[in-house]
Design a protein that fits this description.
By secondary structure, the protein is an all-alpha fold. Helix content is about 55%, strand content about 0%. The chain has helices at about 5-35, 40-45, 60-70, 80-85, 95-105. The chain starts with 6 loop residues before the first helix and ends with a helix. The structure holds calcium ion (2 copies). One calcium ion (CA) binds near residues 53 and 64.
């Protein structure tokens, strides 16, 4: 015997089945790609930055301290890479950061 369900019930049942397939599909896709996920910090940073290395040459030296002083005095604007290489990681490039570099170089 054929049971005639109301149209709204059939539509809701179809939506429920479709939702279940979407849920299972996204869960399966998430399981397959979970091994490819990188930490957000590395993606945003584009790699590792040496603290204090403002010009990206791989070392923190006097020229990097001078760049920080120029930024701190407002002569130039810090790039996102330079902010990521902030020596004391407080989010701002100040004279203290330049002094930290010079102190590490034993110039102070
Ligand atoms: Ca440098
Ligand atoms: Ca700083």
């Amino acid at each position: 015997m054929y049971i005639k369900y109301p149209h709204s019930f059939r539509r809701n049942a179809r939506l429920l089945v479709l939702s279940a397939f979407c849920l299972v599909g996204s869960f399966t896709l998430g399981l397959q790609t979970s091994g490819n996920v990188q930490p957000v910090a590395l993606i945003e940073a584009g790699g590792l930055h040496l603290p204090g290395d403002m010009d990206g040459n791989g070392v923190a030296d006097v020229s990097d301290a001078m760049i920080i002083i120029e930024i701190a005095q407002g002569y130039t604007t810090a790039t996102s890479d330079q902010l990521r290489a902030d020596p004391n990681s407080d989010g701002a490039l100040t004279v203290d950061d330049a002094l930290r570099i010079l102190s590490n170089l034993s110039l102070l």
